[in-house]
Amino acid sequence: MTDTTTTLTELERRAAARREQPAYGADALVVCDRLVRIFTADGVEVQALQGLDLLVRAGELTALVGASGSGKSTLMNILAGLDVPTAGAARVAGRDLLAMGARERLRYRRDVVGFVWQQTARNLLPYLTAAQNTVLPMTLRGGRGGRAGARRRAERCRDLLAMLGVDDCRDRLPRQMSGGQQQRVALAVALANGPALLLADEPTGELDSVSGQQVFAALRRANEELGTTVMIVTHDTAVASEVSRTVAVRDGRTSSEVRRRTEVDAEGQETTRAYEFVTLDRAGRLQLPAEYAARLGLVDRALLELAEDHVKVRPDRTA
Ligand SMILES: Nc1ncnc2c1ncn2[C@@H]1O[C@H](COP(=O)(O)OP(=O)(O)OP(=O)(O)O)[C@@H](O)[C@H]1O
């Protein structure tokens, strides 16, 4: 009897402690919790996301990298509200991306997220000028009408085009601009309604390196000056090595990440140091880097050894 009471009390205590714990990612702007996306084409199933965990805090500038087919675009489409995951949870700025109805989804895409795609032609309406493209999302959102509203929208358009270095393009059609200019105007369009999250899927993929750098600098400015949280998918190693956080996606899961920090030494000299981490998912799983596993011949199982402040992983030499 005493034992049962103790056990019940203990169970209640544990349940209460669990309830009091903040929910996973409670303080994050983007929460992906065991996200799964399965595509079925011609009877064949493809698991594009296989339980992906990712937290992004407000104000971060994060690069997503990974081999072709690892699931980066699938993740971006889900966060953009264009696709719905098969299972798991995804939240952006408190919006549950699995539970949204059609109208809420439309509002989410208009007000909460902005996106820029790799194909320049996909980002802008070809028959509108840069200024008209930028004003359009604000007009669609509605709000204050009349002359005051129009003036406010024109002002925001001017500020955005100036901040992104394309004010000279304001009266040009997309075909009268270079690829890099089009992408920077696309950024202005994406930022028009002041989204909390800006998604850019390979925005520099079709550009030469100079234009690519200008687009990346514009993204960085949006992050620093407007405080917009930015997630950018890139194969460009220059971009990936310049952001403070680079997350690698492998086989539909986040596998590792690099964080860069500027440190000042005793002489006041600034250096940027990079720290490489392996992702530990919510179930405690981690993916060993493929090259580590190959180098030590780690297959099927590994020996674990718990030390005071670290864990050793060794190949199984007992066979
Ligand atoms: N609509 C779809 N129907 C069927 N399979 C799909 C669909 N979209 C993506 N996939 C598959 O899901 C997997 C992940 O694709 P995804 O485009 O997300 O990868 P990625 O990392 O963005 O690749 P890349 O760097 O080449 O753009 C791939 O195997 C892809 O073939």
Q: Could you explain how this protein is built, in words?
A:
The mean pLDDT is 90. With 319 residues, this protein is of the alpha/beta class. Strand 4 and strand 5 (95-96) form a beta hairpin. Helix content is 35%, strand content 28%. It has helices at residues 2-20, 72-79, 102-111, 120-123, 130-141, 146-163, 179-191, 209-226, 237-240, 290-296; strands spanning 30-41, 44-56, 61-65, 87-92, 95-96, 113-116, 197-201, 229-233, 245-250, 253-264, 270-278, 302-306, 311-315. The strands form three sheets. A seven-stranded mixed sheet has the order 6-7-8-3-9-10-11, sandwiched between helices. The site of adenosine-5'-triphosphate has 12 residues, from strand 1, strand 2 and helix 2.
Overall form? globular
Q: Beta fraction of the residues?
A: 25-35%
* Major sheet summary line: 7 strands, mixed
What is the CATH topology classification name of the largest domain? Rossmann fold
Integer tally of domains:
2
- Count the strands? 13
Helix content: 25-40%
Order of helices and strands: HEEEHEEHEHHHHEHEHEEEHEE
Measured distance between first and last alpha carbons: 48 Å
Uncertain ranges: none
Cofactors, ions, other ligands: adenosine-5'-triphosphate
Structural class, judged by helices and strands? alpha/beta
- Average pLDDT rating: 90
